């Protein structure tokens, strides 16, 4: 989603949100904006719905951004948290009361993001470690990985599985051979790494439990997906089987883990800030306003 949509949603409530967000000793609560911006959820849902009309990947992209936000502290925290819940709901997934009152970080650290965020070729042990660092457990790992039930991935994130897995010169043996053949058509060995394919080959735009049944038949797209089921002796396999047999169990665990993830070291009270633009900290926005005062092009730049 372009940052314009976030700016639009924020602008409708910006004046009153700033006042609400300066409370001291603030705690996350579902009623944080009830008095100051009672239409906040409706506004954000409408923006997400509009964006989905032109790009069906938006919902999954928002979930990914929220994941980044929680693991590394980047960008517009509360708006992104609500947008993630609405994206899941609009795709047929569960709804849940969203805890609010986060403020935005004053910094964004690309190096920290590269270190903390799991890579698409992560092993199960690496995945568990990355989640444990931020206080999330194995159940959270498997439940939150289910967000890959919709969205797209670029060839560069899984092409090593098709041709030269772990420098063996052979494809990943945990990848279904028929799917491998299809993916090679989309991702030639020397072609661009930016071609897209569905993360969930069964119901690519629906939020359901098909992600897990795909893993059972070696059709997880990313290595980090298939590791949850195919790693010998993995305790995650039983969780995958449970979520395959019961979508309700998956939805229940996903909601619980999303709330847990959203509570990773949130900035509240007077910590951080409420950004005027999701792309920049307020000092940068203010500098731009001073430098380009009266310039109509400024609106499109932030």
What is the mean predicted local confidence, pLDDT? Answer: 85
Give the termini separation.
Answer: 14 Å
Q: Within the largest sheet, what's the order of strands?
A: 1-2
Total DSSP helices: 16
Order of helices and strands: HHHHHHHHEHHEHHHHHH
- How does the major sheet shape up? 2 strands, antiparallel
Family: Belongs to the peroxidase family. Ascorbate peroxidase subfamily. Belongs to the peroxidase family. Classical plant (class III) peroxidase subfamily.
Site (Transition state stabilizer): 64
InterPro entries: Haem_peroxidase, Haem_peroxidase_sf, Peroxidase_pln, Peroxidases_AS, Peroxidases_heam-ligand_BS, Secretory_peroxidase
Binding site for substrate: 118
Describe this structure in words.
The chain is mainly α and 302 residues long. The chain has helices at residues 3-11, 14-21, 40-54, 58-72, 77-90, 110-116, 124-133, 138-145, 160-163, 177-186, 210-216, 223-230, 236-245, 247-262, 282-291, 298-301, and strands spanning 152-154, 196-198. The chain has a two-stranded antiparallel sheet. α3 packs across α5. The longest helix has 16 residues, at 247-262. The chain is globular, with a radius of gyration of 20 Å.
């Amino acid at each position: 989603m372009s940052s314009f949509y976030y700016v639009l949603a924020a602008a409708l409530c910006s004046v009153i949100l700033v006042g609400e967000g300066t409370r001291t000793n603030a705690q996350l609560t579902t009623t944080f904006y009830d008095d100051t911006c009672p239409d906040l959820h409706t506004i954000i849902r409408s923006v997400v719905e509009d964006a989905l009309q032109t790009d069906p990947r938006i919902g999954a992209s928002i979930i990914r951004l929220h994941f980044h936000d929680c693991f590394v502290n980047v960008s517009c925290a509360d708006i992104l948290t609500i947008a993630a819940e609405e994206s899941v709901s609009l795709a047929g997934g569960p709804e849940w009361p969203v805890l609010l009152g986060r403020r935005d970080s004053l910094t964004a650290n690309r190096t920290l993001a590269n270190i903390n965020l799991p890579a698409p070729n992560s092993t199960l042990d690496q995945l568990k470690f990355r989640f444990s660092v931020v206080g999330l457990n194995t159940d959270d790992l498997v439940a939150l990985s289910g967000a890959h039930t919709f969205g797209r991935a670029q060839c560069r994130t899984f092409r090593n599985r098709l041709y030269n897995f772990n420098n063996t010169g052979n494809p990943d043996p945990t990848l279904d051979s028929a799917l491998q053949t299809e993916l090679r058509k989309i991702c030639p060995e020397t072609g661009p790494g930016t071609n897209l394919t569905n993360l969930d080959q069964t119901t690519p735009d629906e939020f359901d439990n098909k992600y897990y049944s795909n893993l059972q038949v070696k059709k997880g797209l990313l290595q980090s997906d298939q590791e949850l089921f195919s790693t010998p002796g993995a305790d995650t396999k039983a969780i995958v089987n449970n979520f395959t047999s019961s979508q309700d169990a998956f939805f229940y665990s996903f909601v619980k883990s999303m709330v847990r993830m959203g509570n990773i070291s949130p900035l509240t009270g007077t910590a951080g800030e409420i950004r005027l633009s999701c792309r920049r900290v307020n000092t940068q926005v203010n500098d731009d306003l001073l430098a380009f005062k009266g310039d109509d092009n400024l609106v499109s730049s932030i």
